[in-house]
C-alpha cells in the first residue's frame, strides 16, 4: 500500500479527532456504531484463521471485513486497526483491497518494524481503544504493571485483551 510518514503524535491526533467527530469520550468504544457513523460498512465473515481483516473502498463506499471466527477482543482490535487504515491511508485503499493476515502483524516485517502502514494502523487502533489520557487517569505512575488483577479489570472495562493493554502500558 505504499509508505506514508506519520509521527506517533500525528497518528494519536487523528485517533482523537475520530473519537471526537464520531463517538465522544465514552469507553469502551462501540466500534460497530463508530464505523457506521463514519460511513464504513462492517461485514463479519468466516475467513481463514490467518486472515484477521480487510479494508477497501468501492464506488466511494468504505468496507471492513472481519473474521467472525476470531475472539471478540481480536475482532475489536481488527476493526480499530482497519478504521485506522481508512483514516490514515484512505487514498491507498481506493487503489485496491488491503488485507491483514494477522491483527498485530506477527510476521517478519512486523518483528523488524519495517511495515510502516501496519505500525501506523496498530498505533491508531491502540489509541482509539485505549486512549493515553484515559490510561493516565486510571493507572498511577507507580502502579505494578505485573498486577494481573489490575490489568484484567482494566482490560475487561475497555474490552481489550490483557496482552494488548500490557503492550499499551509499557510501550505507549
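Q: What amino acid sequence fits the structure above?
A:
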Amino acid at each position: 500500500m505504499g509508505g506514508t510518514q506519520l509521527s506517533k503524535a500525528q497518528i494519536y491526533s487523528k485517533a482523537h479527532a475520530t473519537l471526537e467527530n464520531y463517538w465522544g469520550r465514552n469507553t469502551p468504544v462501540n466500534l460497530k456504531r463508530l464505523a457506521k457513523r463514519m460511513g464504513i460498512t462492517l461485514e463479519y465473515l468466516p475467513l481463514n484463521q490467518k486472515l484477521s481483516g480487510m479494508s477497501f473502498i468501492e464506488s466511494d463506499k468504505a468496507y471492513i471485513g472481519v473474521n467472525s471466527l476470531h475472539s471478540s477482543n481480536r475482532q475489536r482490535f481488527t476493526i480499530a486497526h482497519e478504521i485506522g487504515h481508512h483514516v490514515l491511508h484512505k487514498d491507498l485503499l481506493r487503489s485496491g483491497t488491503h488485507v491483514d493476515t494477522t491483527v498485530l502483524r506477527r510476521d517478519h516485517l512486523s518483528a523488524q518494524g519495517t511495515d510502516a502502514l501496519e505500525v501506523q494502523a496498530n498505533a491508531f487502533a491502540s489509541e482509539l481503544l485505549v486512549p493515553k489520557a484515559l490510561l493516565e487517569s486510571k493507572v498511577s505512575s507507580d502502579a505494578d504493571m505485573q498486577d494481573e488483577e489490575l490489568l484484567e479489570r482494566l482490560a475487561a472495562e475497555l474490552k481489550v485483551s490483557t496482552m494488548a493493554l500490557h503492550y499499551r502500558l509499557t510501550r505507549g
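Q: And what stands out in the fold?
A: The beta strands are 40-45, 53-58, 61-67, 98-100.
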